[in-house]
Amino acid sequence: MQFVLELQKLMVKNNYLIAIRDNFENLLAKSVLKITDTKISEDEVEIQVKNRVFSVIVECVQNVCSSETNNYEDRDSVLLMNRIENGFQIAAGTKVNEQRKERLKNLLDQLQSKELNEIKKDKLSIMGNREVLTSEMQDELTFMEIYIRSNRNVNFYFEDGEDGTFLMLKIDITN
Asked: What pLDDT, in 10s, does the model give residues 137-173?
C-alpha cells in the first residue's frame, strides 16, 4: 500500500492528470479520450492547445499504444499526461517487435531532422495515396501528426529489456 501513496505523491508533485497502464482496447481507448477531454476542459487553456492535446492523445491511444500482437499477455502500453508551464506533456509507450523498432527508429530519426513545413508536405503526399494505406504509411502519418501538433517537441527512445523492446515518446504541447 505504500507504493500507492508514493505514486500519488509523485503524480501530485509532477502535475500528472492521467496515468494509465493497460492494453488499449476499444472500450478503454474511448474512456481515455473521455477522461482527457474532461481533464483539459477543466483548465483555462486556449482552444488551439486543447485541440492539439486531444489530437495527440488520439494518435497515441489509437496508433502508438496499439499493439501488433494478438496475444493479450504480450500487449503492454502506458499513457501519461501532465500539466507543464504553458501547456501539457504527454508520455506514451508500448512494446514493439524488432522489425517495427527499426522502422520506427528510422522514421523518428528522419522526422527529427526535418523542418515542420517539410513534415507537412510529406504528410500531404502520403494522404494523396489514400487508395493503399500500409501499416508503414499509417505509422508515418501517426508520427507526422504528432510532430506537427507538437511543433516538433518530441523526444523518443527505445529501451531493450528481458521481455522485449519498449518505445517511449515524450511530447510537449505548449502555447
From this structure: 889 999 999 999 999 999 999 999 887 899 999 999 9
Q: Match 504528410 to its residue by C-alpha cell.
A: 123
Residue 52 φ then ψ, to 5°: -70, -40
Rounded (5°) CA angle 127-79-167: 70
> At CB < 8 A and 24+ separation, what contacts does 83-88 make?
83/15, 83/17, 83/43, 84/15, 84/172, 84/174, 85/174, 86/174, 86/175, 87/45, 87/49, 87/53, 87/172, 87/173, 87/174, 87/175, 88/17, 88/40, 88/49, 88/53, 88/172, 88/173, 88/174
Ramachandran bin of 32, using left for φ above 0, alpha for ψ from -120 to 50, beta for the remaining angles: alpha
Provide the β-strand partners of residue 157.
168
